[in-house]
Design goal:
The protein has 112 residues and is mainly α. It contains five helices and no strands. The protein is elongated. 18% of the residues are buried.
Length: 112
């Protein structure tokens, strides 16, 4: 998991989202690992993966989910579901939170 993607904590690093928190509690950073392993908003989906595979989706089991084709399919489906949900929620985060005079095309980089 790279941590890249439409997650609030990642977008916040680039001033594309003001608050890095997950809406599940408004204090925990919304990261890919949080959403995958502990966010209550995806708890039912995580439980369903455990029911289908017979293995709980917890951090120390991730290598097994990645290395086995039969488990990886379930992990990929859950990851896609999470990304779609998070992308919908954070879709309006494509402009900087604050604008600085002299920015180059909204990148936060100043003219030399």
């Amino acid at each position: 998991m790279t941590g890249h993607g439409p997650f609030a904590s990642y977008l916040n690093r680039f001033n594309l989202k003001r608050d890095p928190s997950c809406p599940c509690d408004n204090t925990t950073p919304e990261t890919s690992l949080h959403c995958l392993l502990s966010c209550p908003m995806f708890g039912v989906a995580r439980h369903e993966v455990g029911e289908k595979t017979g293995i709980s989706l917890v951090e120390n089991q991730l290598p097994q989910f990645v290395s086995r084709d039969d488990l990886r399919t379930h992990l990929e489906e859950l990851c896609n579901r999470i990304i779609q949900s998070v992308r919908r929620r954070n879709k309006d985060c494509n402009t900087p939170v604050h604008s600085t005079e002299g920015d180059v095309r909204g990148t936060g980089l100043s003219h030399g």
